[in-house]
Design goal:
This protein is α/β, with parallel strands linked by helices. It has two domains: 192 residues, Rossmann fold (3-Layer(aba) Sandwich); 67 residues, no CATH class. The protein has ten helices and eight strands. The protein has an eight-stranded mixed beta sheet, with helices on both faces. α1 links the parallel β3 and β4. The relative contact order is 0.14.
Length: 287
Amino acid sequence: MNGASDRPLPNRTDVVVSADGTTIAYRSVGNGPAVLVVPGALAVATDFDAFAQELAHRFTVHTIERRGRGESGPQGDDYSIERECEDLAALQAGTGATFLFGHSFGGLVALEAARANKTFAKVAVYEPGVSIDGSIDTSWAPACQAQLARGQHFAAFITFAQGINPETTGKAPRWLLRLILPIAIRKRERKQKYRLLPAAIREHAEASRLDNTHPHYQDVSAEVLLIAGKDATKTGAGRASQSLLPVLPKATLTTFRALDHFGPEKKPKKVAEAVSAFFGQDTQTAR
């Protein structure tokens, strides 16, 4: 892969209409075989622009703006993982993509979509948000929703961060997170996360509802690249990559010991190199 040039390739924007009539926006860049990119919770399509640029010299990259974000329509009263899969199916039909990448909750969407849509030949997921043995717990959600209702967005974000990462962020006292988070996360980025918190709560509820349904990924016919970061044994999302390896019929596992859960956003070149090599392979790679 050539990597991002000094002059980024131009992005294009377009929309498709999902099965329930919801408008779904997406960003496109590059030339070559089509790749769909599915961002995770608290992320929007532009957060993956750098990752898309790294792939764009070899592929045409279409990053979906998942429902409840940007120019896409709302999640809707009947929101579910099925709606997410329908959105992805509409984008696949419109672009002809056979390659699929998902991060975190987007990884869960990618795997669920690949079960139903056999058009996908290769799927890469970075620490997919698959709940195994209760690894995605939503007991924090009522407190988070109450704080949002009172306009306490920063407090709600801390509750979210502690709740979804009990083995890492969850061990830090709230007073310490109140000091660290404003330094670690820029104000503009924090405001985006505040806006997306209500949607993220519903998404995590869906992931939790699907707890221990991962054996049905044996129905995925696509080749799958499972990617984990440095917390591969410490977090639910990290362990999910390893737990899915014996379930998926055609899967390999890659671990980046220097990257955290947000590797595709923070270190896009590193992750994109592995994904590009996987999508570019001409021969099948099984365990």
